[in-house]
Amino acid sequence: MDETTYQKLADQAFHAIGDAFENVDPDLVDCEVAGDVVTLTLPGAKRCIVNTQRPTRQIWLAANARAWHFSYDETARRWVDDKGRGDDLYGTIARIVKESAGVDVPFG
Description:
The protein is α+β, with helices and mostly antiparallel strands. The chain has helices at residues 3-20, 89-101, and strands at 30-34, 37-42, 46-53, 58-63, 66-73, 78-81.
């Protein structure tokens, strides 16, 4: 994948994440999008960090002492965890937020 396509897809993903948290109470989950980083602040000062990794053309996610690397699957048209478990970016974020804050995130 070339740099322009990667950046376009990553930007779309970051907008989708920001949009999903637009109507979520910031006292439950605060979402801050700044450049190539999205920071979700969860109860108990826990954080979920999403950022781009341009050299590998991936989006990385870190939360709860775990990390995920998502590559864009052009056939499925989604960001999929590179460990082969079939986890997708939005589903993983939604699960983390549900477990940490008890909030259902309306992706898509």
